[in-house]
Amino acid sequence: MSGSFGDPSVFLVRVLFELVAFVAFARYFLQLFQANFYNPVTQAVVKITDPVLNPIRAVIRPVGRHDLAALVFALVTVALMVWAITAMRGVGMSGTGLFLGTLYFAFLTVTNLFFWTVLLRAVASWLGNERSPGVAFLDDLTDPVVAPVRRVLPPIGGIDLSPLAVLLIIQVAQMVVGNLLMG
Q1: pTM of the full structure
Q2: Are 78 and 109 in contact (CB under 8 A)?
Q3: d(CA 5, CA 45)
Q4: Does residue 2 form part of some domain?
Q5: How far apart are CA 85 and CA 13, in angstroms?
Q6: Is 30 a domain residue?
Q7: How far apart are CA 119 and CA 125, in angstroms?
Q8: What's phi and psi for 107, nearest 5 deg?
Q9: More confidently predicted of 25 and 182
Q10: How many domains does the chain contain in total?
Q11: What is the domain extent for residue 178?
Q12: Partners of 66 in the β-ladder
């Protein structure tokens, strides 16, 4: 069977690697976006990632707001996922193929991270639970992405359509990049 949904072991490997990459990319973007690190959810992300990232930071120092250790760890995780999936399928891969696969799946992981956080933030706004640490965490991750769209597309009749626009932009970007890299 082909595809990650046809082979349960490939699917599970992909999900596990993507969850690790999700957390690492979230840590990178929390630092980049200057999130509230007193938030309990953000602190949980820090506590989960610190044991892995602190030794890497001894070699790869942050540059300004860029936590390069988190970024490198996330990219290495994605590269290992690509390598593991191709190895499980019994397919050989060149260095260029690994590089392009890593770029593509890193792009997918980051855009999926923002897709799900924007979607969850929109649902939370409908439920009216604006003061929870989880919603504040989602705000910290999504506001830098949604705010530029909100400036172009202001609320219409009290309804903020900017999250919907961001979700559509993410989906189109995934299609375009997928066709460019893998098409």
Answers
A1: 0.89
A2: yes
A3: 28
A4: no
A5: 7
A6: yes
A7: 10
A8: -60, -45
A9: 25
A10: 1
A11: 8-182
A12: 63
d(CA 56, CA 16): 21
Sign of CA pseudo-dihedral 164, 167, 171, 177: positive
Per-residue pLDDT tens digits for 130-141: 788 999 999 999
Mention every residue, 6+ apart, whose C-beta is less than 8 A from residue 153.
Answer: 161, 162, 165
Q: How far apart are CA 117 and CA 110, in angstroms?
A: 11
SS3 at position 38? coil
| Angstrom distance (rounded) from CA 116 to CA 109 | 10
- Give how far the C-alpha of residue 85 lies from the chain's centroid of Cα atoms, to the nearest Å: 19
Provide the token pair at 15. 């999900």
Q: Which residue has the tokens 């290495």?
A: 76
Q: What is the pLDDT of residues 102-134, one digit of tens each?
A: 999 999 999 999 999 999 998 988 887 778 899
Q: Would you give the end-to-end CA distance of the chain in angstroms?
A: 21
- Amino acid letter, 138: L
Instruction: Report the distance separating Cα 183 and Cα 178, nearest Å.
Output: 7
